[in-house]
Amino acid sequence: MLNLIDHALKSPLARILSWPHTPESYLELLAPKVGGKGIKATVKAVRQETNRAVSLVLEPNHRWPGHIPGQYVTLGVSLNGRRHSRCFTISGLEHGCPVVTIQSHEGGTVSCWANESVWSGDTVELSAPAGDFVLPSPRPDRFLFIAGGSGITPIRALTDQLVAENYSGQIDILYYTPGLQDTIFLEVLQDIARTHPNIKLHLVNTRDTSKKLHGHFSATHLKAIGADLSQSAAYVCGPAGLIAAVETHWQKAGVAERLTLERFQAVQAPVAADAAALPVQFTESGITTTAPGRTLLEAAEGAGLSPNNGCRQGICRTCTCRKLAGQVRDIRTGELSGSGEEDIAICVSVPVTPVTIEL
Ligand SMILES: Cc1cc2nc3c(=O)[nH]c(=O)nc-3n(C[C@H](O)[C@H](O)[C@H](O)COP(=O)(O)OP(=O)(O)OC[C@H]3O[C@@H](n4cnc5c(N)ncnc54)[C@H](O)[C@@H]3O)c2cc1C
Ligand code: FES
Question: pTM of the entire structure?
Answer without folding.
Answer: 0.85
